[in-house]
Fold:
Amino acid sequence: MRSPEEEARAYPRASLVGAMENSAEVPAGQRAGRDKKGKPQKGTDKQRGELAEMHFMLKAAGLGFGVAKPWGESERYDFVLDTGKKFWRVQVKSTYVARAPKYSVNVCRSIAGKKKTSYTAEEIDILVVYIVAEDAWYVLPVAVVAVRTRLYFVPFGSKRDGVYEKYREAWHLMKAEPRAPRP
Structure:
């Protein structure tokens, strides 16, 4: 059995950074927005999220997981991963830009488009965060994020700010034997 680091290196990495940089500008009539310098953004938030989800499917399948996507957008999770022994409900979040010097990721859902609510163990099992510019994947159990609506990542950062580094490329958390229920 390979270590998580060996598994991550065994599969070539495709980067989304170039995909979004080389994409066409958003067509007229779609929400485009502008960056701080006034230049058009490349794709909408939804389009960038969809691209990250496609990359997730490729990554997870390449690591040997069975990957299923629920039809529609009614579920709290984006994917179901099959290890052969257990199904995992996975929510995928991504970010493309660092905000001095951290990457910020909303890890919540909205109720009626207003109130932000954190995910619970009744809704998802795992939260996967993809930091596109770093090509970094974080695999976090829901218990780690259950009371938060925003997480901050500092890849290879300071000890104080790098609290989630132990979850970087932690795909092995889903390959482990499921725990027996407690009496």
